[in-house]
Amino acid sequence: MRHGFTTGACASATAKGALTMLLTGQPVREAEIWLPAGFAHTFELIECEWTAADSAQCATIKDGGDDPDATHQAKIVATVSWTDGEGIELDGGVGVGRVTKPGLQIPVGEAAINPVPRKMIRQAIQETLDEYGVNRGVRVVISVPDGEEIAKKTLNGRLGIIGGISILGTRGVVVPYSTAAYKASIIQALQVAKAAGCQHVALTTGGSSEKSAMRLNPELPEEAFIQMGEFVGFALQHAKRLGMTKMSLVGMMGKFSKVAQGVMMVHSKSAPVDFGFLAQVAEEAGGSQALVEAIQGANTASQAGDLAQEEGLNTFFDLLSANACRHAMKQIGGGAVIETVLVTMKGEVLGRAELHGTPD
């Protein structure tokens, strides 16, 4: 699949292009920068123009490759101007969020331009100044015209990044369907929760289960709700590492039946549902032989749950939740409280369990 480029790489290229215009007095159409991934790439630049006698701007369209990213095709703009001082000033303009909560890599009050993109932009600016033998103060403002609208598709608001998107990237390139980006967002959300004073977090597999978690835990602040996706074990381990004392897992049959089996990466392709295991749990819960056999031959975990509900076997869901708690506790090595809540798509509680202390 085709790789793409990060917002940070795009911002660096546009900043270099705009500065080159100031230095040469000539329009530019492309800019080459060195990426942390270990190679150079040339970006096509658009809308390059002088905005004042001492100010120029360039834009590029972010190509996310084959990665399903909210910022794919976003316009990234850099405006560069001379200053009376020394060094390189960097800020965010329209559509770049501003940090309002502690716990992120950027201090409160500053533009949400992450450390690696900041370094990339400064490096591109300094190398260009050196190339032309110029020693002057430079101000760079990164903007994303549609950034505020794009940010609605992200978790920025939850993280306290207000007014637009973040300028991100650690390698300059976007790997299609990379798990690294999602894992990084989980850690970031947990860090914000810690900075907000949360010791109890609710880990959910998506938006629907998160809504259920919020209804079940109205006393928790919004920072405490973390969408972990398929990365159950990863989220649990980092929650424990960051000092959380209670982790509530809230989800539905499809993925949490796998957690009850001991699977900590619950993507559909990572591990199949073990219907023999679910049938065994139904038997332990006191289900009829007909139910046990029906679950053994079920097509999906949700269907198995429906069959148990039809028989009124509520203990089936409590046993699944208890198994999930036990495996989750083993995953973190004890030392915290683990709660598991199984819910329906409508948010109804099917079963729940809570475990304190250490694994068996």
Could you give a short description of this structure?
The chain is 38% helix and 25% strand.
Spatial strand sequence of the major β-sheet = 4-5-6-10-7
- Counting DSSP H or I runs of 4 or more residues, the number of helices is 12
- Can you give the helix content as a percent range? 25-40%
* Number of E-type strands: 18
Order of helices and strands: EHEEEEEEEEHEHHEEEHEHEHEHHHHHEE
**Class of secondary structure makeup:** alpha/beta
Q: Which geometry do the CA atoms define?
A: elongated
Number of structurally distinct domains: 2
Strand content: 25-35%
Structure in words:
The chain is an alpha/beta fold and 360 residues long. The chain folds into two domains: 171 residues, CbiD-like, CATH 3.30.2110; 179 residues, no CATH class. Helices cover 38% and strands 25% of the residues. Helix 8 packs across helix 12 and helix 9 packs across helix 12. The longest helix has 18 residues. The protein starts with a strand and ends with a strand. The model has no long low-confidence stretch (mean pLDDT 92).
Tags for this entry?
360 residues, alpha/beta, CbiD-like, 2 domains, five-stranded mixed beta sheet, 12 helices, 18 strands, 25% strand
Write the layout of secondary structure elements.
Blueprint: E1 4-5, H1 7-24, E2 30-35, E3 39-44, E4 46-52, E5 55-61, E6 75-83, E7 88-92, E8 95-96, E9 98-99, H2 115-131, E10 137-143, H3 147-151, H4 156-159, E11 161-162, E12 164-165, E13 173-174, H5 179-195, E14 200-204, H6 207-216, E15 225-227, H7 232-241, E16 246-251, H8 253-261, H9 275-284, H10 289-296, H11 301-310, H12 315-332, E17 336-343, E18 349-357
Helix pairs in contact: 1-2, 5-7, 8-12, 9-10, 9-12, 10-11
